[in-house]
Design a protein that fits this description.
1 helix; 8-stranded antiparallel beta sheet; mainly beta; 1% helix; Jelly Rolls; 2 domains; elongated
Length: 431
Amino acid sequence: MASTYLSRTASSGSNQIYTASCWVKRTGLSASTTVLSTGDGSADNNARMLFIDANDKIEISYYNAGYTYEVTTNRVLRDTSAWYHLVVAVDTTQATASDRIKIWVNGVQETSFETSSYPSLNATFNYNSSAQYIGDLRGSGIYSDFVLSHLNYIDGTAYDASAFGEYDANGVWKIKTSPSVTYGTNGFFILKDGNSVTDQSGNGNNFTVGGGTLTNTEDNPSNVFATLNSLNYTSSAVTYSNGNTKGTYPGFWIASQGTIGGMNGKYFWEAKVNSGNNANLFYGICRPNIDLDTSPQNQTGVICQHINGDRYVDGTYTASTAEALVNGNILGVALDLDSATKTVKFYKNGTLLSSGSSINLTSTYDNEFVLPFFAGNNSSASSIWETNFGNGYFSTTAVSSAGTNASGNGIFEYDVPTGYTALCTKGLNGE
């Protein structure tokens, strides 16, 4: 969450050389994202050791009554459906100024910079002589919203990206889960395969959760799960949180799509009803290129169910006797794109709806990616969807008793129907 941060107090170490490596999945854009910083809470004497600025560019800088150094990429990081591997190596002992700060994204070194003011030769800074923060800029209460995995910090050695990642047989940059590096006095390795802040480097440099809730997620660099897509709007009226798994809707009808869809395969996902007015929610599937801002539920290319049981199929409304959903209910959606007759089925608390539980897809969806669809309208009361595409949480609430899932992809509250899997990269690849 945006108010969650981690901190620890560093001890004496190198104040000239460090390396930071992490995998990060952005959720909010056009806002500062502090992966790692150090400082005393004031505006001065602080290092942005691994930082994404409000223009979505990587910024490595040191501020002390003005910037002592600042290097900012021209590259922007704006894909909220992807994990980025970021590596920064700082070494002020290098004779060539441009060698004193190096940045890699997904294994490729950055060479184009908006700002390139490097530290002076042999300069020293308080990298290891004050508090270190993750998710909070220098301890100032300026929090960040992102998902983070495999954060390595190296005290006293500058490594390149190949120490933490490598290319697979298909030329895809992948994670090294146990890098062979020397961590130094203040080095640490946290958030390895989970949300543990216990240092895995052997140094015992553990972090403390300073506020908010540090939530685990099945979504990771090796298996990316669907979330709600914050990028496909003509307006930005939906407020996303909890790693873009929760959507809070405005005072007019507007819809969210999932970040992952399929043209074949069988997929399952869940969501929890959270609305002050149960007339204000729809759920189902859609094609990619629909208008999400203008009565999205009754368009061609949308099949959706109202939580009172009524439905729209490609703009045709049908009243249904299917039982309604109420606050706290968990709906399930099973999408079959493999059978001769493609279908979408709806569940309530693990049981197929008694009426209208299965809807046939028309030829409108042939040769199209089919995406999850959620719509809300906050005109009279709160309208919120809390989705679970397999992360095992509804917002910050873990599933109470995980159901069976033969595919092994994702954690769901209720049993995943036989032959179905989560909307994730391994699920799409049949793994």
